[in-house]
Amino acid sequence: MAVPGRVSVAAGDARVREMDADEFDALYARSFRRLVAQIYAMCGNFAEAQDCVQEAFVRAWDRRRVLDREQCPEAWVRTVAYRLAVSRWRRAQRALRPPDRSQLPRPVPEPDASRVELMRALDQLPADQRRAIVLFHLCDVSIRDIAVETGAPVGTVKARLSRGRAALAGLLAVSDEGSVDQERADG
């Protein structure tokens, strides 16, 4: 607890007379109702004004040792309470606005049957072939850039692409034939 009338040095080397707990209680008792009325007049909501002034006093309590009792600490509390009211009002206004369409998550389309079949076929390829095919065909990466990214020679990347395509063609033809055979059996 600070000694009444004790002078201390606060931020910026300004001489400040510390406010002790009794002085703070006196400030609260004489100012609370007046500040609530003032903030109510500024924001138009009595309950909000009470909440904001109360929060401002909580913040002032934490700063009571650097609040200069001779420099109108009530003004500091009023300013903080007003800023809190404005912040709450802005938050409430933002909540009432329709959401920004650019911030909404885009719906993910359900995969169609061909995509599911392609993913199953890719799963059956060796990892190097699969990576080369995905980089080249889905990511539009050049063969030279794939070679740099994977650390493999250009010729090896070309071979992986060729073998991977051949394997995919065989796997997808088998699944297409299977679906055709299934349709014949159903029909």
Automatic annotation (TrEMBL):
<dbReference type="InterPro" id="IPR039425">
    <property type="entry name" value="RNA_pol_sigma-70-like"/>
</dbReference>
<dbReference type="InterPro" id="IPR013249">
    <property type="entry name" value="RNA_pol_sigma70_r4_t2"/>
</dbReference>
<dbReference type="GO" id="GO:0006352">
    <property type="term" value="P:DNA-templated transcription initiation"/>
</dbReference>
<dbReference type="InterPro" id="IPR007627">
    <property type="entry name" value="RNA_pol_sigma70_r2"/>
</dbReference>
<dbReference type="GO" id="GO:0003677">
    <property type="term" value="F:DNA binding"/>
</dbReference>
<keyword id="KW-0804">Transcription</keyword>
<dbReference type="InterPro" id="IPR036388">
    <property type="entry name" value="WH-like_DNA-bd_sf"/>
</dbReference>
<keyword id="KW-0731">Sigma factor</keyword>
<comment type="similarity">
    <text>Belongs to the sigma-70 factor family. ECF subfamily.</text>
</comment>
<keyword id="KW-0238">DNA-binding</keyword>
<protein>
    <submittedName>
        <fullName>RNA polymerase ECF subfamily sigma factor</fullName>
    </submittedName>
</protein>
<dbReference type="GO" id="GO:0016987">
    <property type="term" value="F:sigma factor activity"/>
</dbReference>
<feature type="domain" description="RNA polymerase sigma factor 70 region 4 type 2">
    <location>
        <begin position="116"/>
        <end position="168"/>
    </location>
</feature>
<dbReference type="InterPro" id="IPR013324">
    <property type="entry name" value="RNA_pol_sigma_r3/r4-like"/>
</dbReference>
<dbReference type="InterPro" id="IPR014284">
    <property type="entry name" value="RNA_pol_sigma-70_dom"/>
</dbReference>
<dbReference type="Pfam" id="PF04542">
    <property type="entry name" value="Sigma70_r2"/>
</dbReference>
<dbReference type="Pfam" id="PF08281">
    <property type="entry name" value="Sigma70_r4_2"/>
</dbReference>
<keyword id="KW-0805">Transcription regulation</keyword>
<dbReference type="InterPro" id="IPR013325">
    <property type="entry name" value="RNA_pol_sigma_r2"/>
</dbReference>
<feature type="domain" description="RNA polymerase sigma-70 region 2">
    <location>
        <begin position="27"/>
        <end position="94"/>
    </location>
</feature>
